[in-house]
Write a structure and sequence with these properties.
This protein is of the alpha/beta class and 475 residues long. It is built from 20 helices and nine strands. The strands form two sheets. The protein has a seven-stranded mixed beta sheet, with helices on both faces. A two-stranded antiparallel ribbon has the order 8-9. The chain is globular and about 75 Å long. Bound molecules: nicotinamide 8-bromo-adenine dinucleotide phosphate (NBP). Belongs to the 6-phosphogluconate dehydrogenase family.
């Protein structure tokens, strides 16, 4: 009774994925460095399911049918290399190793190339959806050595989230493409979360709405065009009471955000490939800035802010307008964040030769993952209309969507600036939008400055591109 697949690493993700596989009747062998976790799993959540607990690597590799299909779910970085080194002496050519962790995509490129030389088929599989997704259906972004795909395709497609009968799992591309796509997903996730938090901050600090009102607004938005998992959970968060005080739990949570680094990788990859992703990067910077609570407390004491007029209370119409402007700002900024993320995906083709199917990627993210949202259907439709779309913002549907909303977006950014209630990611998105629609940028001045101090030369508007000139500015 050989196992169809094996999972190495029984922490949160590995354990839930092993259960997901077993629940779909794939006999699953499991192994974990700390062997007691195997025993706990077999006698606990895995009891009565088609799982084979293995206490050594030898037992584990012997328990698997060939070619072996092994899913690594260990901490990203050195642990992945350690697991591969431990497995290798017990594998044979044609065996498949999948890394389902949040590995850095260039590590995946290196591992795939090294293992190919030994006949081992290596796949970097981006997995999103956290604990719940892992158990009930994650979004899966497999890439790497395509020769390994046919054997694992039916398994991965079965355990993935399904939306309208379509599994959120499709081959992404060669080498590190799967992990690259997962990384960009996480970068978009950072921006998405930050934009929602900024709308909350504006409602709380500038509009002085109470939590009940903010809850109603998020809950309304979550049923409209912004519908998606992150707004659902945001709305839900406003219903949780702190068991100790009875107050809203959110009000008790320290405003010092954590991060595990995948958002930062997205920004680094963007810088390395000269791809502007200001909203995604602003979201990472904002986590850094907000994490320094002490600095902000000192800043609050030392730095003067705006002095907004203490006007009469707003009328119901004015309040409705403010809310509608904020919703427009969130929609348009979110769209810019996706446009930046997809531009970075495009850079993977340029930089690494990984042609990606952008519409297909939007479908992968419709279920299972954190950024799942109704909106992704519109992105898929945009790439169906024009697979080579230069920038997501150029699509006719989105151009029209922004046309209808841009007044509200501009108002929200301006009002937050006047009030001094920072909405840096929202503002950066508007800056991105206004920059990509400006045929004449002020960078002629930058070129003049560079030529002035460093003789870096410039091209001229009245000459062909590629002809460079230098002016003697100091004669
Ligand atoms: P962790 O990232 O916390 O990793 C813990 C696992 O790694 C344990 O099984 C541990 O074994 C094993 N491990 C370590 Br640490 N060093 C090892 C080594 N040198 N050799 C062998 N095994 C080693 O687990 P997780 O939160 O389940 O996440 C797994 C992967 O999935 C990560 O890459 C994570 O970034 C990614 N991911 C997580 C989520 C999420 O929501 N948590 C979502 C999507 C992707 P031990 O028990 O012996 O210490």
């Amino acid at each position: 009774n050989q196992a169809v697949i094996g999972v190495v690493g029984l922490a949160v993700m590995g354990e839930n994925l092993a259960l997901n596989l077993a629940n779909h009747n794939f006999r699953t062998a499991v192994y974990n460095r700390t062997v007691s976790k195997v025993d706990d799993f077999i006698s606990g959540r895995g009891a009565g399911k088609p799982v084979t607990g293995c206490r050594t690597i030898e037992e584990f590799t012997a328990a698997l049918e060939t070619p072996r299909k092994i899913l690594l779910m260990v901490k990203a970085g050195a642990p992945v290399d350690a697991c591969i080194a431990e497995l290798l002496p017990h594998l044979q050519p044609g065996d498949i190793i999948m890394d389902g962790g949040n590995s850095f995509y260039l590590d995946t490129v290196r591992r795939e190339r090294e293992l190919k030389k030994q006949g081992i088929l290596y796949l970097g599989v981006g997995i999103s959806g956290g604990e719940e997704g892992a158990l009930n259906g994650p979004s899966l972004m497999p890439g790497g050595n395509r020769d390994g795909w046919p054997a694992v395709e039916p398994i991965l497609k079965t355990i993935a989230a399904q939306v309208d009968g379509v599994p959120c799992c499709e081959w992404v591309g060669p080498e590190g493409a799967g992990h690259f796509v997962k990384m960009v997903h996480n970068g978009i996730e950072y921006a998405d979360m930050q934009l929602i938090a900024e709308a909350y901050g504006y409602m709380r600090d500038a509009l002085k709405f109470n939590n009940e009102k903010i809850h109603r607004i998020f809950s309304n938005w979550s049923r409209g065009e912004l519908a998606g998992y992150l707004l659902d959970i945001t709305s839900d968060i406003f219903t949780f009471k702190d068991p100790e005080s009875g107050a809203l739990l959110l009000d008790k949570i320290l405003d010092a955000p954590g991060q595990k680094g995948t958002g930062r990788w997205t920004s680094v990859a963007a810088l390395e490939t000269n791809t502007p992703v200001p909203t995604l990067t602003q979201a990472v910077f904002q986590r850094n800035l907000d994490a320094d609570k002490e600095l902000r407390i000192r800043g609050a004491q030392l730095l003067p802010g705006a002095a907004p007029d203490e006007n009469d209370p707003m009328t119901a119409d004015e309040i409705a307008e403010e809310i509608s402007a904020l919703e427009s700002a969130l929609y348009c900024s979110k769209l810019c964040a996706y446009a930046q993320g997809f531009a970075l995906l495009k850079a993977a083709e340029r930089e690494y030769g990984w042609p990606l199917n952008y519409g297909e990627l939007a479908l992968l993210w419709r279920g299972g993952c954190i950024i799942r949202a109704r909106f992704l259907n519109d992105i898929k439709a945009a790439y169906d209309r024009e697979p080579g779309l230069e920038n997501l913002m150029f699509d006719e549907f989105f151009r029209d969507a922004v046309k209808r909303r841009q007044d509200g977006w501009r108002y929200a950014v301006a009002a937050s600036a006047l009030f001094g209630a920072a909405m840096p990611a929202t503002a950066s998105a508007l800056g991105y939008y206004d920059s990509i629609r400006r045929a004449d940028s002020p960078s002629n001045l930058i070129q003049a400055q560079r030529d002035y101090f460093g003789a870096h030369t410039f091209e001229r508007k009245d000459r062909l591109r590629g002809e460079f000139f230098h002016n003697n500015w100091t004669h």
